[in-house]
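To whoever picks this up:

The parser on our side crashed when reading a file containing two proteins. I've narrowed it down to the boundary between the first structure block and the second sequence. Both blocks are reproduced below exactly, byte for byte. First block:
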Amino acid sequence: MRPPRHPGSYLVVELTNRCSLACVHCAVSQAPERQSTHHGATGWMDPALFEGLVDDLVRAGAGFDDLVLFWLGEPLLHPHFARLYRAALRAAVRHGTFGALQVHTNATHLDDRVVAAALNDAPVPQTWAITLDAATAATYAAVKGRDRFARVEARARRLVEAKGRTGARWPRLVFQFIVGSNNAHEARAFRDTWTRRLRAAGLPVTVAAGALPPGEANAVFFRQLDAPTPAAQERENAVFQRVVDELGLRPPRPAPARVAPGPEAPCSAFWLSPVVGWDGRVTTCTRDADFANAVGSIRDTPFPELWWGPAMARRRDRVARADYRDLPLCQGCFIPRSLNHAPIDPAEIRREAAWRAEREAAIRGRAHA
């Protein structure tokens, strides 16, 4: 029986946990004593493991609204990125496994080979978020931890020009600026620079904050920073709100002035957004860099059995009742109150529970046949 496909679902796949930068707001840049166990070893996802994941989803008739190729590393560093991207796109086109594809990149390795893989006219929406976070070299180095400003600017501009020159429908280019207290003063210049460059290439462009608007227009996008503590989040929320007000932008909802710790009931991540690390481990949340909520590994068990199997079903039942006693990572979490978090409709929780009951009844029926 085909698993339910919830609106807003997305599968996060980390092709590598290695990165070419050391952004100050990222777990990669933390001091060794504070780094997650996920960075105790680094590597690339085996191409066969990725392709097996996609094949297992196809065989199960399962899918997600989006496939997101990104987590705690730079995906374009993967030596077989183009091969893996095309494999995911084929599954999306032929089987509807993914409703859309997303790539999040810092553009340090956005070379001609990658550009050739990116530009296409496939009947599946594709978005590439190019996260630059600065308008000058000095601020870039302060935020990103490396002096790569000239390099990423040149590579990003070549992608813009190539899309304009070829007339390729995809990808939708999103120039992303994660607003923080260390770069807020450059938000206006960033907007002006990239809207000008996109228009010069003959590409339509919109400017947004908090959530990307629907459609195919390329975008300059201002995103809220996820901070490590409620107090820090409140400070950054105030900065974000000030910037979007100054730019005349209207996020779907305002950034909350007060951020109370404690889990949401229920957290949508347990239904909508599994994360697969480069080594094959599967967890429920992009904040879970230590895999505290791990449900297994696709090296040992096909993904559909992990994500829609009995162990996750029992966990979802508890989370649906706001029972996080066995999930210490979740107990002080405040991220569900972020603009970057989407809730789940209770009707979707009931729909999956009904599907599960129907499947279990069918299994019992076959056992007694």
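<<boundary where parser fails>>
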Amino acid sequence: MKLKVLLLMAFVTASTFAQETEFKFSKDGLTDFIVVTYEGSAKDTYNRALAWVKENSKKGYKVTSSVENEKMTIEGGKENFLCSKAGGTNVCTYGTFTIEIGFKDGKYKFEAVGLSEKPNNSTTTTVRNLNDFSEYYDKDGSLKKYKDDVPAAYESLFNGLSKDLLTFMDKKKKAENW
């Protein structure tokens, strides 16, 4: 009996401290951050991430703040972030995101910090609260009508950025060690 209790406590502890590897959309908001295992020093990973921002500067990516070899905050944009049909036409928004990447030897933390949307051909910008998506849900907990593309857009944006960064860093690392 004691063994079962001990095993249960170990399982609960392990699952409590498990780190997310992908961003997920829910009524309570987006996953705060993910941790990516990446072989290398914090300094090398930081420099490769900096090169990724530079490579994507044509997309509007820029470092807004940084602590060398420890963390950086990046702002960028995504054309056609969220599109929906309205009156027979496709209406899309431009998404401006802010992410923060923290670096440690052997891993980095990728955090979704902010997101704002601006419909194409509009001057109105809506700042999204990434910690509360209740506006997209009905009282019964189901997604509101015409909002079924929203979760995929959020997840795709932040998971896509993380995967793009990882792919770029792997290619850069391979090129450095040819």
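After patching the parser it read the second block fine. The helical segments are 2-16, 42-55, 150-176. Residues 3-17 have pLDDT under 50 and may be disordered.
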